[in-house]
Each structure stands twice: as structure tokens, then as C-alpha cells.
UniProtKB/TrEMBL annotation:
It comes from Halalkalibacter hemicellulosilyticusJCM 9152. This is HTH marR-type domain-containing protein. It comes from the Bacteria. Pfam families: MarR. Gene3D superfamilies: Winged helix-like DNA-binding domain superfamily/Winged helix DNA-binding domain. The keyword Phosphoprotein does not apply. GO terms for molecular function: DNA binding; DNA-binding transcription factor activity. GO terms for biological process: response to stress. Keywords: DNA-binding. PANTHER family: HTH-TYPE TRANSCRIPTIONAL REPRESSOR YETL (PTHR33164:SF43), TRANSCRIPTIONAL REGULATOR, MARR FAMILY (PTHR33164). Residues 1-94 form the HTH marR-type domain. InterPro entries: HTH_MarR-typ, MarR/SlyA-like, WH-like_DNA-bd_sf, WH_DNA-bd_sf.
Amino acid sequence: MNELAKQLNITRGGATRVIDKLIDKGYVLRKTHPEDGRVCCIVLSSQGSELIDRIEVEVALRNENILKKLDPAMCQVVMTSLQALNSAMQQVQLGEEGDE
């Protein structure tokens, strides 16, 4: 739970509450790590996987509808900007991981 809390930038207790709610809804499962019984693993359930699939389709359709409102040149500017932002975010994350 510590690693998840760190990735989400929330407390361990906050991560536990979020995971407990997702377990109650059937979206994830908590399993014991096969090699280290002190470690728990959070695994997406089939119901959670189906939900992710539905959300991805809805997001793709919405993004497509938004991009249709832009001319091709502006779409290219948006895509280039998003790629630059994604790259910067990855560099920051790698830097934070390297600081540990």
C-alpha cells in the first residue's frame, strides 16, 4: 500500500480507503504477494477490466468529437504540445524516482 500511496501522492490510510471502496464495488482484488506474505498486491478484477474498457471507449469518442472541432493544423499543435507535456511529466517522474 505504501508504493500505491506514494504514486498517488496520498497517505497510506487514504490509499487503503480508496482500495477498500474499489474492492467493495468489485473492481479490484487484494492478494498476498506470492514470495513475501507481508506485501499485498492490488489486482484489477474482470469487472474492473470491463469498466476500464468502457471508459477508454467513451474517452476516445469524446476526444475524437473535441478534435473534430479543430482544424488539422490546430490538431497538430495540440498533439505536439501533449507529447511535449507527456515527455516532461515522464522526466519529472524519473527524476523523483532517482532521488530516492
